[in-house]
Amino acid sequence: MKKISALFLLFAVLGSLAGCNTVDGFGKDVQNVGEKMQDASKK
């Protein structure tokens, strides 16, 4: 039972770390699009 709990905890931690990287990358993409729109509106 302890092995199953430990594996579940390990996968949960790894999944949350992968999710953070994905959200961080998505936020940077959105920021870049916003900056391009601002640059285009200034012209």
From TrEMBL:
The keyword Cell membrane applies. Keywords: Cell membrane, Lipoprotein, Membrane, Palmitate, Signal. It comes from the Bacteria. InterPro entries: Entericidin (IPR012556). Residues 1-18 form the signal peptide. Belongs to the EcnA/EcnB lipoprotein family. This is Entericidin A/B family lipoprotein.
